[in-house]
Amino acid sequence: MMLEVENLSVVFRDRRPPLTAVDGVSFQMGEGELLGLAGESGSGKSRTAHAILGLLPAAAEVSGGVRFQGRDLLTMSSVERRQVQGKDISIVFQEPMTSLNPTMRVGRQVEDALRVHTKMAAPERKTRALEAMELAGLPDPERVYRAWPHELSGGMRQRAMIASALVLRPRLLIADEPTTALDVTVQAKILDTLREINRKEGTAILLISHDLLVIRNLCTRVAVMKDGRIVESGPVDQVFQSPREDYTKLLIASRPTRKKLQGGGSHG
Amino acid sequence: MTAFFKRLALLLVTMLLVTALAFAAFTVIPADPTASILGMNATEEQIAALRAKLGLDLPLWQRYTTWLTDFVRGNFGTSYRFSMPVEDLLRPRVEATLALTGLSFLLIVAVSLPLGLLAAHKEDGLLDRLVTVCGQVTMSIPNFILGIGVIWLFALILGVFQQKYVPPEDGLWAHIRYLLFPALAVALPKTAMTVRLLRGSVLGELRQDYVRTAYSKGNAPRAVLVFHVLRNAMIPVVTFLAMTIPDIMAASIVIEQLFGIPGLGQMLISSIGNRDYPVVQAIVVIAAFVVVACSFLADLLYRLMDPRIGGR
Ligand SMILES: Nc1ncnc2c1ncn2[C@@H]1O[C@H](COP(=O)(O)OP(=O)(O)O)[C@@H](O)[C@H]1O
Ligand SMILES: [Mg+2]
Fold it and tell me: Which ligand is closest to the CA of B207, given by its number?
């Protein structure tokens, strides 16, 4: 297995009482696999992703294991972990509007991982950045390369984020609600782009979404989270056709809000 | 770009108003300079001749436009007291004050930028606490008292500072070495303010989402700070620094008195006492120009540094 997450927990110690955001999560991903992580908002999906990549704030305490290609990401030194971040594993964040640096041109941000991980000269970095931007479905990459983030639409910014995550062709791409902030037509196109990337580059994708329809659109397997735990998992079609948990049924039935789930569920 | 030209037009209008005010104020002041030039026993004819010579008999607006065009050409008039061109009189004074202001500014920048960055980098670390405490103390002490403290410490206790002004003609390095001590008194409170502003600005930026993005690419903390955070964090600091230049100049003028530096401050005070209006006028206009130009500069730098605002 490429990625093995074992009994992963995240506790925010700065909260009184301490808040358990992720509570003993385990799952595995093979090379090139498309796995969905579903669950209502606040169920711990994003924090699971951040824990895998070592991106949690200092107040968060992580336990359990995250093995990537046999090496434990949680126990390795920060120097070693930095060699994995952005090179072997990349992430696209939930917030396309704020995840880009407002005072850095888009091209330089797409190139950032190249600057960190390689000794490439500027012209070569640019060539690679433009390729990644094309792969991420950005029209007119030359123009976008020189643009400032605020000059791009939400969809374009998210594509720029995807390009910056792909520039070093990672083995695993974590996409955290990559389409939630965007309108429906843009959503579908970005999912198509992710599918293309998986097909062309063999990149495994961990797609996080509160929307099971989005996950069904792209993924082959799904894990459903609730209150920091995985409550159900399996092949997407199976989970869709015969969900075991009422919670999952509700996720399928509605594009859920937390209120609906708590009001309608028999548990929780 | 249009915003830039609007700002430039505003600058010109402000300067026009300031010069008109300066001119009116010193012309309307009742005391007649002829008395102080000719003495009490002058005859009517002598006074009339001098008034004509000084242009005091012309209509007000004509005197203003003549004065203004002369001023723009670098002809600031003639000092009543020294009977020499004001610009020649003021040149060494302006140089002395500018040297002190400039040195103080460099000191502020050179000390506060690394300190602010380091304090934020290790938030609540030893350096951060030290900087915060020292900052609070120096910010609350007036420059004048700080100046006395500097003299007391460096001249009387440590003996590394000879309190005798060294003009630039006596050696540029000795001049700068002398100015370093008064510059310290000018720079300390502003340095403390700049450190605090930069520290807060960096800490605010470190909480932004784009910082997490930078870390996700494998950037080390220092690279995040230098490549990603610095420019964003510097936007308010650069604006503050530009806006604060007039304050630094004002503080320099105060400190000049204490350190016996023959700058604009001494000249202004003695010229007011002697009703030497052309000199007072020139100094007021120069000071106003510094204020207006620095606010223009602050605006310009802000536009240059923040792409979300610039370009329009
Ligand atoms: N910095 C934090 N401090 C305290 N609690 C947090 C913090 N970040 C997230 N949480 C809590 O952790 C839980 C999981 O959050 P998150 O992983 O963002 O959920 P999801 O991505 O599934 O919407 C939520 O209950 C949230 O309130
Ligand atoms: Mg989330």
Answer: 1
Contact A60, A20 (CB under 8 A): no
What pLDDT does residue B257 have? Answer: 87
Distance set, CA A109 to CA A175, A251, B109, B172, B286 (Å): 17, 36, 29, 46, 45
What average pLDDT does range B152-164 have in this prediction?
77
Confidence category of residue B231, pLDDT binned at 50, 70, 90: very high
| Ranges of CATH 3.40.50.300 domains, chain A | 31-55+73-88+170-261
Which among A91, A95, A103 is the top mutation candidate for probing chain B, defined by the most B β-carbons within 10 Å of its own β-carbon?
Answer: A103
**Chain A contact set for B308 (CB, 8 A):** 102, 148, 150
Q: Is residue B74 within 8 angstroms of chain A, CB to CB? A: no
Cα dist from A113 to A90, A161, B173, whole Å? 10, 12, 47
Residue of B nearest to A100 (CA): B210
What local confidence, expressed as pLDDT, does residue B1 receive? 67
State the span(s) of chain B assigned CATH 1.10.3720.10.
86-309
Q: Please check whether the domain covering A31-55+73-88+170-261 is classified as CATH 3.40.50.300.
A: yes
pLDDT tens figures, B85-100: 999 999 999 999 999 9
**CATH 1.10.3720.10 is the classification of domain B86-309:** yes
- DSSP E strands, A107-177: 172-176
Chains A, B: CB contacts within 8 A come to: 74
pLDDT score recorded for residue B27: 64
At A260, which amino acid appears?
K
- Full-model pTM: 0.85
Residues B283-303: pLDDT tens digits? 999 999 999 999 999 999 998
Selected for mutation to probe chain A from B213, B230, B231, B306 (highest A CB count within 10 Å) is B213
Collapsing DSSP to helix, strand or coil, A169 comes out as: coil
Average pLDDT, chain B: 87
